[in-house]
Amino acid sequence: MKIGFIGLGAMGRGMATRLIEAGHEVHVWNRSPRPVEELAQRGAHRLESPQGAFAGDAAVTMLADDDAVRAAILGSDALRAANKKLVHIVMSTVSVAFARELEKVHADAGIAYVSAPVMGRPEVAAAGKLNILAAGDAASIERVQPLFDLIGQKTWPLGAEPHQANVAKLAMNFLLASAIEATAEATALVERYKVDPAKLTEVMTATLFAAPAYAIYSKLILEGEFKPGFKLTLGLKDVRLALAAGEAAGVPLPFASVVRDNLVDAIGHGDADKDWSAVSLVARRRAGLPSKTGGR
Fold this sequence. Notes:
This protein has two domains: about 1-160, 3-Layer(aba) Sandwich (Rossmann fold), CATH 3.40.50.720; about 165-285, N-(1-d-carboxylethyl)-l-norvaline Dehydrogenase, domain 2. The N and C termini lie far apart (about 50 Å). By secondary structure, it is an alpha/beta fold. It has twelve helices and nine strands. Helix 2 (about 35-40) links the parallel strand 2 and strand 3 (about 45). The protein has helices at about 10-20, 35-40, 65-75, 95-110, 120-125, 140-150, 165-190, 195-205, 210-225, 230-250, 255-270, 280-285; strands spanning about 1-5, 25-30, 45, 60, 85-90, 110-115, 120, 130-135, 150-155. Helix 4 runs antiparallel to helix 7, helix 7 crosses helix 8 (about 195-205) and helix 7 (about 165-190) crosses helix 10 (about 230-250).
């Protein structure tokens, strides 16, 4: 299959590499050239502009936010010259409002549009173990399912309207941010009472909270290194998008406001470029606990 791939950040590089290694003809574009050169050495074809990504059977967009997708896709007028049989897969986490705008733009251009944001960190993407939240025309999803099978371990169909996948992704990231915040507060509490937080983590992940999210993020909180995996600024972006989606539908999300404020607090203390588990430093500061090794 001839595939255009737009966006080679920490997630996109691993995803595009999986497609290349499976033997697909992958044409790549990125705002900065270095990742393009790296994938070209693996067999990818360089593109000079995002328009070239829309000449094949499928185009995958994996960019950071609404503005990046708007600039690359709408700003370049890529859809006008696209192959009319192509399926455009937007795997970015974007706002619900923008996802709806994309629905109209693609319909007007006569281009199939599938929204398929993913769940997983960069190392999960590289291993092809992502969970893919997909929404759109069922026939279009079926056409690109072989690509999803290379990138992810499971595809979760969520509806016929692409924006439905974006709602689900924002809900999942809100749940994840809430789990990180609750874990941070709980570990700060036990540590203040001189209980080893590692023991709490052991109990937590072996009993009531035996789930990957708690295992992964409690480990990061305990280690305190916070090496970028999913940047704190991106976490703040997603929580804000969840709040905006809630407001638009008349759904209050009061705890999302708490998490947003704590993410802002962490950024204000210089932790913007760290993994979003660095929000745990806020709970530590408020509890009067010393900073972790990798923290401030």
